[in-house]
Structure prediction request, 415 residues.
Amino acid sequence: MKILLVGSGGREHALALGIHADKFCTELHVAPGNPGISQFATCHDLDIKNNQAITDLAKTLGVEFVVIGPEVPLVNGAADSLRAAGIKVFGPSKAAAQLEGSKNFAKEVMHDAGVPTAKSFTVGPVQIEIERALDTFGAPYVVKDDGLAAGKGVVVTSDRVEAIAHAMQCERVVIEEYLAGPEISLFGISDGRNIIPMQPAQDFKRAYDGDAGPNTGGMGAYSPLPWAPNDLEDEVYTQVLAPMIAEMAARGTPFVGLLYAGLALTDTGLKVIEFNARFGDPETQVLIPRLQTPLASLLYKAATDDLDDVALQWRDGAAVTVVLAAPGYPADPQSGGELSALPTVADTQIFHAGTKKSEGKLLSNGGRVLTVTGTGSDLTEARNQAYRAISQIKLTDSFYRTDIALNASVAEKGN
Ligand code: AMP
Ligand code: GLY
Prediction:
């Protein structure tokens, strides 16, 4: 089958490799893609904010199936536009993508579905209401812009003045109780009726070692989690994924695609921190290299209401990914730096996230430049491979965290 994948990041590079490796895919097109993806698939220019342009490209190429990577086209309704043109799509409708597009909507659905999450208030930019909500929960304060904010919408702070200032900048804001406990990401693949959990992963949101520095889109990730309870997937399925899918179907807006649950494992059980309507980045870069189930046919089955008999197969071992970030990331990333030749290291994959080719040179082109995944029989081996590779890549003033999966790799030794 001829397939079009929409997106250009490290997540899409990993998805593209997985789709390309499945014989079900006879021809892979990616738009806009990136220099890493263009080594094995055909890339096309595309404004992913333009639904008509996406649909026109799919029709011109004659593809039967489209996989949408990023949230922006999903929240804009690109999947609806493609479906209206008779094309199969992996990715939720505009109505279902509201689980990511509006934090307040996600809270309403969780409430109706009985899914555990932080207590919250939704308020407008009215200072007295904001202060009342903040004081109900006390510090640390959690203030979330209701809408999509490219990773900048959430402020967690003990500074009340900062919390109020952030809330006053938003049109609508969700203020919620602080959840203490380790955070994990667990993704489910859904056809609108069934949802199949993937293995859990953990990502590292802060920019610097020791979880210091500003929040980012994610500086690294690993999977599986040797410290997590064995029944974690079952629990998340029963308490979160299945009720959400049932509630969305009951509302007449079934969720078809990837439901990303960001969870806190608190003393009083697991609680949802957020939903996304797409694969996570960089978690995808550790999940896809370990997923044995052929990816293209899996996503097609989800898109065609056909997941009844599917169970996922995983390779043994572990994967660790480390993000190479541009100088200035996340506040003010500098693009255009020249990358040294990318090394070939056994058991590693280098995913392009923000790169471009210019006059034969590979240049940085975004905040997260590369994601380097190592695989191995355990996290220690996987980390070693990832760090062996990333340490050989030169980009002036770039940086990466040196502690991705470090604690977990120590913990696995105790098992
Ligand atoms: P989000 O953009 O929703 O992923 O939030 C960014 C980060 O803020 C999360 O990964 C958490 O680390 C943190 N966060 C969000 N909500 C809460 C909460 N209720 N309690 C504690 N931390 C939170
Ligand atoms: N890794 C966080 C995200 O994809 O939103």
